[in-house]
Design a protein that fits this description.
Blueprint lengths: L3 E8 L10 H16 L6 E5 L3 H5 L4 H8 L6 E5 L5 H14 L6 E7 L6 H8 L15 H16 L7 H11 L13 H6 L2 E3 L2 E2 L9 E9 H7 L4 E10 L14 H14 L8 E3 L5 H10 L8 H6 L16 H5 L6 H13 L12 E8 L4 E8 L1
Parallel strand pairs: 2-3, 2-4, 9-10
Antiparallel strand pairs: 1-7, 1-8, 4-7, 5-6, 8-11, 10-11
Helix pairs in contact: 1-3, 4-14
């Protein structure tokens, strides 16, 4: 297997983007990534997306976007793994280059959900759960997160206000990200007064569903230096799964897939959690941020909220998370989120993260599909 590097990155503004279609967003990100990589052509395109069929009645995205971007008759397919679709597309691109099948690969994550009303979008998002045993019973993603958060509070003796640092940190970091949907800091007091979405989940515990696209260009590591003066190397790429329905899992409060994919990634990269300088986790809900930190070895069971309260997740903390706002402040354009995480991690490793720049050499990104049934972990090195 060949080592793989990222030589180009691109992203669009995240938010309710009325004036741009899904294909336009994808092409904008792709063109930015190709320009950054100093390339005009690639061998293949992998598109991460979850809800194009449900929200804009458009499937067959690989061909559509390749055509619209002027990439010609190349291999082009859509990859779907719920919220982890973007990370799954990166995984496919990584394998294509590592195996020697392709030399230059584009990975694009794109989502357009605000063309439908919130009820329709949330119903579509719920298809990431067990349709018969969860969604059909009326459970939504926020409601499921609320159940997990309530159980976590009971099990580990913490209060809802103890989760405030996750939201406060994300919004503080998002304020310095020109691509973020929300660029205003919030306070712990504002968090405490926030309206409920699915108690105890408030509007400041839940990431907004929105539109956006991000893209990266991959190539073999031995060729990266010829095209980029700041290549970022993929040290590990790993996937794991758990039972789809939360009630079927051995321990609902432990993200087994996140644990397994992180362990695989640590082994592949030859590192431990102590070697990781920053962690772009999947904070679709603050409870998932806490559970991810624990599953990946950055905090003991039930102790992630204490790590956050002590400042350990801030940009100057022990394990910075959501350094460009995360899903909470940057926004959660579902199928594109996994690629946004990689772009933001690459910006940090290239020393281009602006006011949020931290001193880092090794970074990790993890994307969760649905309530954590799929977890895809990548470790990147400057």
């Amino acid at each position: 297997m060949r080592e793989v590097s990222i030589i180009g990155i691109g992203q669009t503004q995240v938010g309710e983007i009325w004036e741009r279609s899904l294909r336009d967003l994808a092409v904008d990100a792709i063109r930015a990534a190709l320009k950054d990589a100093h390339l005009e052509r690639v061998d293949a395109l992998y598109v991460g997306n979850m809800l194009s069929g449900e929200c804009i009645a458009q499937q067959h995205l690989g061909v559509l976007i390749a055509d619209w971007a002027g990439l010609g008759p190349i291999e082009a397919v859509k990859v779907e793994a719920a919220d982890a679709s973007g990370a799954a597309a990166l995984r496919m691109g990584y394998l294509a280059v590592a195996s020697g099948v392709h030399d230059y690969v584009l990975v694009c994550g794109v989502e357009k959900v605000t063309d439908v009303d919130a009820e329709t979008a949330n119903a579509a998002w719920s298809s990431a759960m067990d349709a018969e045993y969860e969604a059909f019973q009326g459970v939504t993603m926020p409601a499921l997160a609320g159940l997990l958060m309530r159980r976590y509070m009971h099990e580990f003796g913490v209060a809802r206000e103890d989760f405030a640092p996750f939201a406060v940190t994300a919004h503080a970091n998002g304020a310095n990200n020109p691509y973020a949907m929300f660029r205003s800091p919030i306070t712990a007091e504002a968090y405490a007064k926030a309206g409920m979405v699915a108690e105890p989940i408030s509007m400041f515990d839940a990431a907004p569903l929105c539109d956006g696209a991000a893209a990266v260009v991959l190539c073999p590591r031995e060729r990266a230096a010829d095209l980029s003066n700041k290549p970022v190397h993929i040290r590990a790429s790993a996937v794991a799964t758990d039972r789809l329905a939360v009630h079927s899992r051995r321990d609902p409060l432990f993200l087994q897939a996140a644990y397994l994919s992180a362990q695989k990634a640590y082994l592949q990269a030859g590192v431990s959690p102590q070697d990781v300088d920053l962690f772009e986790l999947h904070d679709a809900f603050t409870i998932l941020a806490a559970m991810s930190l624990e599953a990946c070895g950055f905090a003991e069971r039930g102790k992630a909220v204490h790590l956050a309260k002590e400042g350990g997740i801030a940009c100057n903390g022990r394990i910075p998370i959501s350094t460009m706002g995360g899903l909470k402040a940057r926004g959660h354009p579902i199928g594109a989120t996994g690629v946004y995480q990689i772009v933001e991690l690459a910006l940090q490793l290239r020393g281009e993260a602006g006011a949020n720049q931290i001193d880092c050499r090794l970074g990790m990104a993890q994307s969760l599909g649905g309530s954590g049934a799929t977890a895809i972990t990548h470790i990147l090195e400057a």
